[in-house]
Amino acid sequence: MPVFDYKARSRKGERKEGSLEAPDRRAALRQMESQGLVPVSVVESGADKSASKGQRFSWRLGKERMGTRDVLTFTTELSDLLASGMTLGNALNCLANRKTGKANDKIIASVRDEIIRGSSLSDSMEQHTATFSGLYINMIRAGEASGALSEVLRRLVAHYERIQETKEKVVMALVYPAIVLSLGVLTLIFSMVVVVPKFSIIFEQMDQALPLPTQILIGSSQWLARYGVFLLIGIIIGFIMANRAVKTKQGRLWWHGFILKMPLIRGVVASGIYSNFARTLGTLLANGVPVLRALQIVEQTVGNVVIGRELSKARDRVTDGTTISGPLAAGKVLPVMMTDMLAIGEQTGDMTGALTHIARRYENELDRNVKIFTTALEPILIVFVAVMVGFVAVSILMAVFNLTNGLDV
Known about the structure:
Blueprint: E1 3-10, E2 15-21, H1 25-34, E3 37-44, H2 49-61, H3 68-83, H4 88-96, H5 103-117, H6 121-125, H7 134-146, H8 149-206, H9 212-247, H10 249-259, H11 265-286, H12 291-301, H13 305-319, H14 325-331, H15 336-348, H16 351-406
Antiparallel strand pairs: 1-2, 1-3
Helix pairs in contact: 3-4, 3-8, 4-5, 7-8, 8-9, 8-11, 8-16, 9-16, 11-12, 11-16, 12-13, 13-14, 14-15, 15-16
């Protein structure tokens, strides 16, 4: 019968190592769980590991990726199954057997198979970094070390629900302005391409001088009819080039800095970034992730290169033995109120509590900024659309009145 070497944690978090005989890895896992042990690593003695490495490498090459909502659903269901008393292997097997027809099936099955081979949950998820972020993996690893995996999963669910809610607030704030602007532009294009040419034929037959606004309108309509396709191609090419430029290091740095300076938008974007920063850092520290590793993860997930660069500088200074608040305040990118609250948390020894207060403050501020943004943007867009469409209507009416006066009607 095969012999398996294992590493595990007791329910109290004590580290255990040893070996046991079992028909296969699944049976070995069941034996350990019956003894009250949480498996960390189970490897068959003398097994050929090269095949396992090849299989893991093949999974890394895959393009499968779970969406944010899918990850949130998976985490919620896994947490519920573990809380109900189901073992990790059985819980993953239950989730893997649900055939959704999406990438979720392969990813969850891969994680389950790696668990059966003896890998820890965090190591299995680390093979799918496109799906599971550094924050997610490190919190799972901390939960495995402490023996409180189910609790960590619940905290991950709460964290990702807050992050998703913040993103949805920003997206919803942009939906109505985008609809108004799109309809206004489509109306203008329809007027210039369909309506104005019909009136221009009538005006030409009347053979009378037209007002300047009407001449500008007809000229613009004729230019759009002739070169509209080229204009559209130019806009698409310009968008593609701008998108590629923004993806470069310097382009991304300029764009993210520009967003933080734009009126109306900067309040929404900055509040979302600050609340995300505080929630993520607080969640990591509360789950026992070391501060330097936590800062590195936040730097990668904060969503803004300018602020991420300041976090990188702060992390280097923290390595030298200084506090977090001091280096962050020296960068002058984060608000003074935020760094002051961090300093208070360091002084009282309650960084997690301070970060929770910061997150709540900026989540409330995000709500206010979203309302200000939508309230201010609606009349601006309405005036903009009214001016565009109104110019077309007034130009045509001026020509009609001018022709009517010429006919002495």
